[in-house]
Design goal:
This protein is α+β, with helices and mostly antiparallel strands and 160 residues long. The protein is built from three helices and nine strands; from the N terminus they run E-E-H-E-E-E-E-E-E-H-E-H.
């Protein structure tokens, strides 16, 4: 079993967040997914900040929401969970040639990454995300969030 690094900094250090609220004001947290394609990005996911993502989409009102960072390697693709984090900063992604950069200081980075491609929910999840062609995208089905949380080893209410 690999090492999971939980990162807690700034004012939400050691915060336990109960269901239905988050670290930034109590709104219900939403979940999003981003797929890091190492072929198109030119670097493996392990070569980027795993508590930040870039997207070509204009993004608003995501402070306090959770982002799941997935990647795929090889042919056929082996899909893995690299990290998740709670968004606490939104800025221009122009420096990385993208519209928006989202980052967080609370999250978990998996080293080694957690294989998710063979999970019973994953094929439906990938299909719901247009095979990850849509970029930064909301996860709207609870069963997919439950699957990601289980893969990440999240305790109930952990970072929610």
């Amino acid at each position: 079993m690999g090492t999971a690094v939980t990162v807690h900094f700034d004012m939400v250090k050691d915060a336990k967040i109960s269901a239905g609220e988050n670290a930034h004001g109590g709104k219900n947290m939403k979940d999003y997914v981003v797929y890091h394609n190492p072929d198109s990005m030119g670097v493996p996911v392990t070569g980027v900040n795993s508590l930040a993502i870039v997207t070509d989409k204009k993004v608003a009102d995501v402070i306090g929401d959770r982002v799941w960072l997935l990647t795929g390697e090889g042919s056929p693709r082996a899909f893995s969970l690299r990290s998740y984090f709670i968004v606490d900063h939104v800025e221009s992604g122009a420096g990385a040639r993208f519209e928006t950069r989202l980052s967080g200081t609370v999250g978990k980075v998996f080293d080694p990454m957690v294989a998710v491609g063979s999970e019973d929910w994953f094929a439906d999840f990938k299909r719901s995300q247009g095979n990850f062609a849509f970029g930064f995208q909301a996860i709207t089905e609870r069963r997919f969030i439950n699957g990601l949380e289980a893969a990440a080893g999240c305790a109930e209410g952990d970072l929610r």
